[in-house]
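Input/output pair, single chain:
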Amino acid sequence: MEVVHAERRQQGFAPALLDAVRLRGGQWGCRRLYLPSGPNNEAALRTWTALRFSNLAGDYTIGGIAVTRAFMGSGRDGAVFELLLPHRLVEHEGGR
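Output:
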């Protein structure tokens, strides 16, 4: 799964999309967001780190990145990133 199409990368879409997800998640009472990434997807790894996501402990490491076996399906290992959300992150939406 791609969050941002290759032709649209480096234009600020991923941070904008994740800001919207972070806001909605907070409104729904979520406390954490998780993002998987292929362990060799350097652009995604840089993006998640820049957006303050933390790499969770895994089964092994590649180049300092913790990787979980079969996280992304059978035979597809993945790095897992987590962002803790502030409690009760709420934006008022016209009285909703």
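Residues 92-96 have pLDDT under 50 and may be disordered. Strands lie at 32-37, 54-55, 60-62, 65-67, 79-84.
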